[in-house]
Amino acid sequence: MYKEKISVLYFMIIAGFMLLICRLWYLQFYERNEFIKLADDNTIRHIPMPAERGLVFSSDGEILVKNSIYFKASLLSIEVENISDTLDKISTVIPLSVKEIGYIKKKMSEYTLDPVIIKDMLDYGTFCRLAEIKAECPGLLLEVQPVRDYPFGVSACHVLGYDGPVSEEEVNNPDNDYSVGDFNGKDGVEKEYDERLRGKKGSANVRVNAAGRLIDAVGVDFPIPGDSVFLTIDSTLQLAAEKALRETIKELELKNGESSGGAAVVLNAKTGAVLAMASYPVYDPNKFARGISQKDYDDLINNKANPLLNRPIHGAYPCASTFKIITSSAALQEGLAGEHDHYYCKGFYDLQGHVFNCFVTSGHGWISFEEALAYSCDVVYYEIASRFKIEKFLKYIADFGIGSKTGIDLPGENSGHLPSEQWKIKTYGEPWYPGDTVNLSIGQGFVEVTPLQVARFTMAVANGGYLYRPYIVDRIESAFGNEVEKVKPHLERRLSIDERFLAAVRRGMRGAVSYGSGRAADCEYAEVAGKTGTAENFPTPENPKGLNHTWFTSFAPYGDPEIVATVLLEKSGGYGGELSAKIAKKIYDAKFK
Amino acid sequence: MKKNPDLSILLLTAILLLTGTIMIFSASSPTCAMLEDFNNDQYYYLKRHLTNVFLGIGAFILAYKLDPKKLEKYSPLCYLGALLMLIMVLLPGIGIVAKGARRWLGFGSFTFQPAEFAKALFVIFLAEFLAKTGDKIKNIKYFLKITGLTILLMILIEAEPDLGTALSIAGILIIMLYISGANIKYILSICALGVIGICVLLITGHSYRINRMKAFLNPWQDAQDTGYHVCQSLIAVGSGGVTGVGFGDSRQKFFYLPEQHTDFIFAVISEELGFVGSFMIVMLFILILYKGFKTASETNDSFLRLLAVGSASMIAFQAFMNIGVVIGIVPCTGIPLPFLSYGGSSLITTMFLMGLLFNVSKYCSRHGRGWELGSDDEEFDSGYDDEQDDEVPDNIQNDAKKESKNYEDKNNITKSDLDEYTETPEKT
Fold first, then answer.
1. Interchain CB distance below 8 Å, B178 and A5
2. What pairs with residue A217 in β-bridges?
3. Which of A109, A127, A148 marks a domain boundary?
4. Mind listing the pLDDT tens digit for each residue in A483-530?
5. A–B: how many Cβ contacts below 8 A?
6. Structural domain range at position A89
């Protein structure tokens, strides 16, 4: 009897134990990979190793952006024994003001786990002297501080942009691989090519216990340094353009007694590569890289001239007479004007009782089509425009790239503005009047362009109608020097203008420089062809005197165009031919001398 | 009759004792080396465990040498002793409180858990009571009497609180009642009562029990808080895989696993030695159960039989409950793993129970036909029997002979047994 009971009981208990074995098999065989992953998550910490940010070069090999090493001294409050003694010793190396000492002591008394920074941006000499006294100062923490360095300072600052600490939103965005304290590009090439420049963070993988203390090292994933970016920018042209722009604007500011601004763009006429892009006023990206002070930042933000604006692509201005290049081309193509036509300018144009003045109020008299472009006679264009159907005209204007972004590889591009009949009804509640077309023909009225858009259509006219997309990065190389990616010029489209008509327009532009309104751009080293422009402004709060914006867009050499130079001066007063053309000349001097 | 003890029991004890020593060292040394609480001494627990091992071996020898006759005679004292200790431990000023429970008696660095000792004492008392009662256990009066006495002990233990030990005692009561032929309906009734009792405890008792229950039902829901123990334990077991991460290489023992050298040592073993290791450990406990039940079926004395069943079941029940907690099929109760969990009282009690089993094995007739499993294992068993003559020291054999004399008349040796063991001359 009892033997039977023992057997029954035995098998029941064995069944229980079999349950244990099945469960063990399930956990340790079927689910093991899942648990191994969980165990790794549990115990392996990845200590980030920052990747060196990529360098930026000009096309002629100058380093435009590099990384410098500075040092940071901080105190770990939990390790400091006597704060006064420690600070006394440290101040023998770094002079600390009473205010700074007070601030550090206050911070230290909060007993945070984060190190309290004594001073950053220390040079190597200071670092060495601090390292000597480190043993006497427990809690003194010396860290390497990589800093983005812009050796050319303010030069090309708008193109290069700057980098700064990532924002909280960027850290929290799961799409980004950012952690607190990382830097990323905030503007310009630094922002546009951030992903390439950033490289890939590495990590030292260590095993830690549940309290987060290190047990042993597991391995290292070495960081991959960021790629080097080679710009199409030519440092000679860039510096020349900046210098000419700066000198002219400083003179103007002195003369007009108010702040001004300007832009200059130089393109390769055959590819659309940006050889120079200058904007004035400027800022120093090094200030951002070293941690900009609130005062400096406020000064930048509150500056009415807006130094952070990259005018060639961010600024939109009335196109003024440079627009006549488009009007001429379109009229020739449409047969509304002939290249050998002659017109009579009596100083004004009467459109059904509305009078439109030529800027030369005495009139140009008898004038050929070519001369009209060279002298920038408005009346001729009023007449031509009055023959245009606005839909047709707008189609041509859009074909020249007005109102659409050029697609340059820089952030924040402005598309300018191309009006339309519907737009006018929507905005002003008025239909499109013939007067609007007449106004449009000389680039006044509702049309707004960026200097880069002007440079782009000038390029297309110069090279026989090929509208390339402007680009700023020529190639990207890995940090180890092997070429990763070469950018090829991108042809957006061929203008719908026949080459012979474009040639007529180029003749007019050549005339402008050789005998017309743009004689100031006449360069002894190369034949320049260009078009001046003067945007007349009404007085506004930003422009109380209603000073003119002046344009000059050009290419050279006339016979076989190599480069395009477009200049804009804000609130310069005067006329494009006098001021902007001079800047273009200096650029051509630098290029062809 | 006089018999040689079953040396495979001794071998099992030795294997488990050795495994326990190694694994306690492996599980505790890295954290001890890191913590100033342990003087950064990686041998902290190993040293203390070795002391426990010596005390345990002493308990084993004591249990082995005890005269079953005298044990039977003084068994009521066992119950009273257990009762006294369990009352003492509850008295403020006498019982020592640690980790929120009043479980320890003793002075200075010498402390012990009466509840652990009560397990062994209860097994002796229960075996004697049921052997003496015999078939009368079918009578509700006797059934209620022994159940009442057990519940009294359980209430005292639960008052500490120590639900795990109380449950172990309940488990053994049910097993022993079944073996001694109590009415199945009565047994099922007290099982039902037990379930109700646990539910009442869950609702009215300590709030941590509700959390443990929740954590058991879905540990991952709150893996950082209530489910932490179970999750970390499952991670340890699962990440061990089939062959383990390697001896000494457990990662979970670095403060992830709570109680990694006591209640959750099986998780460290599973992690380091994998399924191979954990399977072996489970098999060792199955073998103890097998040995206990086989010994029981081969002895004709009901006290000895119940003693064997009780000892083996007590160890196996605790092993089942402990491993069940570690692998998440039993709610967390705080039952140590016999031999392997660090803890003096537990080890001494386990060794004492193994000693009792070893002791009883002296009095059984080998190859009893009534025990089906016996025939399967004939060769294995006799193999050990052949060796034992050379290995057992003379004095132990003589002791065994002397003690066994008292039982000769009680044991009905069959003819076949006599033929087999011709070296036993004394016979009626």
1. yes
2. A206
3. A148
4. 778 899 999 999 999 999 999 999 999 999 999 988 898 888 999 999
5. 131
6. 68-148
